[in-house]
Amino acid sequence: DAGVHSKAWYAATCDRRMAEDALYRSNKDGSFLIRKSSGQDSRQPYTLVVFYNRRVYNIPIRFIESTRQYALGREKSGEERFDSIAEIVENHQRTSLVLIDSQSNTKDSTKLKHIVKLS
Hints:
This is BLNK protein. Keywords: SH2 domain. One of its GO terms (cellular component) is cytoplasm. By secondary structure, the chain is of the alpha/beta class. It is about 20% helix and about 40% strand. Strands 1, 2, 3, 4, 5 and 8 form a 6-stranded mixed β-sheet that branches. Strands 6-7 form a two-stranded antiparallel sheet. The mean pLDDT is about 90.
């Protein structure tokens, strides 16, 4: 289970709509949580949901079978890989995460700052 269940930022029973609603309510740049991906695909088990600039971004977390590691978004050369989901979160609490708007193809970046808990 990638060690996520004990983490404050993991929303176990949350779907995309609930996650987005919770982040819009938080209304703080850098608010985030991690939820199970809707597709239930073993290659993309989780989604990082981030609020920035009045928008919610759903970033797939991929599981790379060959290395037993995780990576964010679509596969790209030279991408960062992590041994756990927690490492992704810890890394992006320190270094900015690039957010790509799929509609307008604009880029923003923010750090993961505020854990959003579902009430």
